Amino acid sequence: MASATQSFDAVVIGAGFSGMHMLKSLRDKLGLKARVYEAGETVGGTWYWNRYPGARCDSDSYIYCFTWDKQLLQEWNWSERYPEQPEILRYLERVAERHDLKRDMQFNTRVTGAEFDEDTNLWRVRTDKGEEVSARYLITAVGTLSATNIPPLEGLERFKGRWYHTSQFPRGGVDFTGKRVAVVGTGATGVQAIPVIAQQAKQLTVFQRTANYCVPARNGKVDPEVVEARKANYDDIVKRIRESPFGQEHWPMPKSALETSPEEREREFDRMWDKGGFAFWLGNYQDMLSDQEANELCAEYLKRKIRGTVKDPAVAERLTPKGYAYGTKRQPLDTNYFETFNKDNVLLVDAKTDGAIEEITESGIRAGGKEHEFDIIVFATGFDAMTGPLKALNIKGRGGRALADQWADGPHTYLGVAVAGFPNLFTITGPQSPSVLTNMPVAIEQHVEWITGCIDAMRRSGKTTIEATPEAQDGWVAHVNDAAGQTLMTTANSWYMGANIPGKPRVFLPYLGPEGIGGYRKKCDEIAAKGYEGFELA
Question: Which of 5, 189, 285, 529 sits a CA distance of 20 to 30 A from 218?
């Protein structure tokens, strides 16, 4: 039975980094009555759901955290450069406890629909528990990578063994000891999971659709002196990452790869390779992502590394990326990924040379006319990124118009935070915002602060609704597409382009403006300073 409608000032959907910070701001800065709905059993979002072997963040831990809790920045000590999932979840639990966030959160509850009521100017939000509540503001904090993509393979229901998706792993993990295991997918998740599973499994077969450019993570303990220096200098670090292009301490080199001598280029490539992490992706020559010839110089270096690591030349060739520019797909950070294919118990099945997966059988996978038998199949096949989680919420704006219909040909937003025809709806790190092209906590904090400032300004001026104008939205969509079109990013079949989901419109989903998140922050602040230019307030 539906319970009596409760009313809130704001409903937030999701209790990961975004939902936790949004609740803290709404409640403790603005004094609003807010409710967070979360499908999981506790806080964490991405770090609650993704517990596959080897799951860890790939932004340096000292900046992969909340910067607004200055005391916790000093108290908390990360164990490694890139901590694993359980440690990040412990950190988020600590934040929830310190700020008593759980008292305004409802767990194990999925939002099944939300409709804007034009008579009352309120959102009516429904859950799978049969509740309906109303709220002035509806804020989505559902993450960009949370709508699981299980490929529509024929025969999956017939498989007699066990199968898992990396984002839906059982709480206690999976024991691969002595098992014949398949991993389907070699994106960032597969690159993390494959070396770990290979250490346990009797036999591991990796099914690869597209070979990936990987760079070494160089994970490990961080020098205690470096940790202390960072803690003493956090204000400067926070300022730098907020103004940087990618929310990281990486800046593209202000020169062309083509104007550099081969000797100097090799030295720079070696330096970035040895540094590890995103240095090679985000701190490379400034024309790497815009000039095909410059890009090929960077790509060729990485291809040489693969050939120098993988002992079997035929396997090395299949693991060498072809047909797309380096850096145009999500950059995986690896620890012994290519080395794993030197093990006797690891087999590579490449869709292009060995044949694609045809079906799942009772005992395994048929690919290229050959059947492979398995006890366990792990799908590392990613997500319906960015738009998928929002479309799944069944949101309806003015006139009962469904967001999923409005986005049938791709997302239409203003700043990636608002949608014309959907008043008082804010999408944290939504499509057409920098989001996945940055260190996520930096993008999240920017959006949360901006939304908080916006609601505060509305309340001070007595406004009850804010809505993007169709003209401002059209202008932003054109700007997003234009910015992406000046790079090589639109040339790859990546999930940034929605290309991993059959039938999904081929549109560049995040925002890759000239100065990245730093420039985007300035743009959003200017819009607010001009009385929320491009929005209609009533």
Answer: 285
- Note the pTM of the prediction, 2 decimals: 0.98
Q: How many domains does the chain have?
A: 2
User: Distances in Å between the alpha carbon of 365 and those of 159, 206, 263, 321?
Assistant: 9, 11, 47, 24
How far apart (Å, rounded) are the C-alpha atoms in residues 466 and 470? Answer: 13
Domain boundary among 434, 463, 492: 463
Task: Count how many residues are written for the chain.
Answer: 538
Mean pLDDT in consecutive groups of 10 residues from the start of the chain, 538 residues: 74 98 98 98 98 97 98 98 98 98 98 98 97 98 96 96 97 96 98 98 98 98 98 98 98 97 98 98 98 98 98 98 98 98 98 97 98 98 97 98 98 98 98 98 98 98 98 98 98 97 97 96 98 98
Question: What does DSSP say about strands 364-367 and 370-373: parallel, antiparallel, or unpaired?
Answer: antiparallel
Token look-up 């890759």 returns: 512
In this structure, are 354 and 400 located in the same domain?
no
- Among the three residues 314, 349, 379, which one is the final residue of a domain in this structure? 379
Surface-to-core class of residue 48, CB atoms within 10 Å of its CB (0-12 exposed, 13-18 middle, 19+ buried): buried
Structure tokens at 197: 């599973």
What is the DSSP secondary structure assignment for residue 25, as one 8-state letter? I
Q: Are residues 370 and 451 in the same domain?
A: no
Q: What is the CATH number of the domain that holds 94?
A: 3.50.50.60
Q: DSSP H helical segments within 120-248, as ranges? A: 188-200, 224-232, 234-243
